Amino acid sequence: MYCPHCLAGTYSFKVNFRNRIIKVKVASNELTFELNGDNGISILVQGEAYELLPNTPLKVN
């Protein structure tokens, strides 16, 4: 489970999901997702649904 108060600093990584790259940035106060590609996808973050659109950062607190 994501624990924002347990994190010092930030880190980021990329995930290849269904031949699309999702960039994920984790900070102490938010998560940021960015999708490369042509079509959006639905994602779940801690049980909540979000629509991730191409080249549009999605910030989740």
TrEMBL record:
Residues 10-52 form the Glycoside hydrolase family 65 C-terminal domain. It comes from the Bacteria. Keywords: Hydrolase. Pfam families: Glyco_hydro_65C. InterPro entries: Glyco_hydro_65_C (IPR005194). GO terms for molecular function: hydrolase activity. This is Glycosyl hydrolase family 65 protein. It comes from Maribacter flavus.
